[in-house]
Structure formats: C-alpha cells, structure tokens
Amino acid sequence: MTDKLYCYCCRNYHPAEQVVLYETKVGKRWRCLRSIQAAQQPSQIRDAAGRQQSLENRARASQQARNSLQLRHSSLAFA
Ligand SMILES: [Zn+2]
User: Fold this and answer.
1) What pLDDT is stored for residue 72 in this prediction?
2) CA of 72 relative to ligand 1 center, distance in Å
3) Could you tell me which residues come within 8 angstroms of residue 14 by beta carbon, excluding any fewer than 6 positions away?
4) Residue 64 contacts by C-beta under 8 Å, 6 or more apart in sequence?
5) Contact 49, 40 (CB under 8 A)
6) 60 C-alpha vs ligand 1 centroid, how far in Å?
7) How many Å lie between the centroid of ligand 1 and the Cα of residue 51?
8) What values do phi and psi take at 15, rounded to 5?
9) Separation CA 5–CA 32 (nearest Å)
10) What is the pLDDT of residues 31-78, one digit of tens each?
C-alpha cells in the first residue's frame, strides 16, 4: 500500500484507496473521496440541482466501482 496518487483538489498525495478518477474540465484527474464529499454536501446538491446532481452521479459511479474493487480485495484477504 505504498501507492500514492496526486489529488488535484488538495494538491496532495493520498493512498490509492482514498482517491477516484474525477472528471474535470481538463480531463480525468485523481481526487480524494474526502474532498468530493466535502464539496457535495446535501444542501448544496439541493440548491444547485442539475449541475451538482450530474457531478454527484459521476462521482458516485466511480466510487461504487472502487468500492466493489475494495470488497473484492477484502474478501480475498479473508479467504
Ligand atoms: Zn485530496
């Protein structure tokens, strides 16, 4: 678990399991889940419905992909 990926949002390195590929204006960048969640508080999503919603859906999709990868990893670890 020495893999660290550069998060464009914090401009910092995070462990691979804490970042997802996030679509930005300039393409896909790694971004940590914490910064994504911080930027998508429920009240903000409700306020700026459409725009925020599509961002949230995209983030959620990559997060789910990552979560299922993690699940597979942990079930292997327990096997
Ligand atoms: Zn970050």
Assistant:
1) 72
2) 24
3) 4, 5, 7, 30, 32
4) none
5) no
6) 16
7) 21
8) -60, 145
9) 9
10) 999 999 888 777 655 566 667 677 888 888 888 888 887 777 666 666
Contacts of 8 (CB under 8 A, 6+ apart): 22, 24, 29, 30, 31
**In this structure, what DSSP letter does residue 4 have?**
E
Which residue has tokens 């990552």? 66
State the distance from the centre of ligand 1 to the C-alpha of 10, rounded, in angstroms: 4
Q: What pTM does this model have?
A: 0.48
Q: What is the pLDDT of residues 7-28, one digit of tens each?
A: 999 999 999 999 999 999 999 9
DSSP 5-52: EEETTTTEEEEGGGEEEEEETTEEEEEEHHHHHHHT-HHHHHHTHHHH
Interior angle at CA 44, CA 30 and CA 62, nearest 5: 30
